[in-house]
Design brief:
The protein is mainly alpha-helical. It contains 15 helices and no strands. It has one domain.
Amino acid sequence: MVLAVQIPLPHATAWHFFEEASDLLLSDRSLHLYADRPDLQFGPLSIVAALPFTVLGGLGGWAAMLVFSAVGIVVVWVLVDSVRRLRPRLDEGRVVLFAGVLFVVVWGDVAVRTAHIDDAITIAATAAAIGAIARGRPWWAVVGLAVAGAAKPWGLIFAPLAAVLPGSRPWLRVIAVVALAGFTWAPFFLVEPNTLDASSFAIINEPSSSLRALGVAAATTPAWVRPAQLAGGFTLAAALVWRGRWTGVVMAGVAFRLLIDPAANRYYTVGLVFGMLLFWLIRRPDRIPWPALGAATILEFGQFEGFPPTVAGWSRVAVTVAVIGLALAATRDPLPGGRVPPEWS
């Protein structure tokens, strides 16, 4: 339904980036791809995933929208199944329906309106990792998190989730996530050292961004923003896992990213909503997740034309800071079988 509603509106607005990246990957400049096109801000895995669609020519964008719309339904199923394994008293009626509809609506920004399959893969792979944790399978969680990081660099923020399940030296699993994701980039770095320059690609510091609301008036992305997003988000995620508040990692990691991001794109909303739904349903499995709806409404409507950019910016600050604070102040999370996470601190 979301797909059908959005088709008459602007759709697949970012698909051309994947078509261009696929052409470059198949050219004689394949391993110079990121140095030649620093605006391609997604991982090699996302380009490989786009290849089967791009061979369809003009139908590729349509096929991608259809497939990734279906992926959104799978993400909902994985989310609900994961919560059910940790909180068997989950309300299977109104709560699941509300959460599922909310997620699918905002997922439309990624799967249909923009066709940002990189973000879609990152969120879906993270959901798969959450599912593996709920099933007590730590190394499958490593695989999911590595896929998330290989599809989009910001997916590495969630790598500390690999240490949630107890075992011998769980933080080695975090290193494995980073190593596996980094392996997909290795050929590009080895052949073209300037590949790293792609991380400094500057985008416009939008009037409605929280970064501008915080007083950063630079016209484009300050050089410190991308490293700070990755390092800060990763550190925040590690702290939450360390303290046993692992279900807050996704929402807090995304919130930190949005807090200091120069852009205020609507498709950013879906990652925060997914994280908030996970966090809320684990803690209140019998309650409608109204906070997730509130956050989605503020972030979505703040980007419509005519909405005061200053108000939108400060609203983003309020939402993201509140989400981070909520994650840090939460009680400890359960593990499969009703166990409590190990007391790291």
